[in-house]
Amino acid sequence: MSLSARDALEYATRDAYLKLYAVLAGGFVLMFAGQFVFATAVGSLLALLGLLGIFTGLLGVLAATVAVLHKILAES
């Protein structure tokens, strides 16, 4: 089965996929920001906020990954 690069690029950049990719990228940014806050936290409240940021970002990354894989498998 041959697939042209143009068709593959059009398939990967559909509107629904772009939203999922944005959630994936946002999750990574939130994880890294949470790690930075946690590592540089002076008080326990900031450390807690850092941990919440890490876990929220991780949840976003996992949810977006599962959603992208589900869309790919469902459409193929």
Describe the structure.
With 76 residues, the chain is mainly alpha-helical. It has one domain. The chain contains 3 helices and no strands. Helix 2 packs antiparallel against helix 3. The radius of gyration is 17 Å and the shape is elongated. The protein starts with a helix and ends with a helix. The mean pLDDT is 89. Keywords: Membrane, Transmembrane, Transmembrane helix.
What is the fold's blueprint, element by element?
Elements: H1 5-12, H2 15-39, H3 44-75
Key traits:
elongated, mainly alpha, 76 residues, 3 helices
Please provide the ordered H/E string of secondary-structure elements: HHH
Name the average pLDDT. Answer: 89
Question: Hey, roughly how much beta strand do the residues contain?
Answer: under 5%
Instruction: Tell me the count of domains.
Output: 1
Structural class: mainly alpha
Largest sheet entry: none
Number of strands: 0
Helix content: over 70%
Number of helices: 3
Keywords: Membrane, Transmembrane, Transmembrane helix
Summary?
With 76 residues, the protein is mostly helical. It has helices at 5-12, 15-39, 44-75.
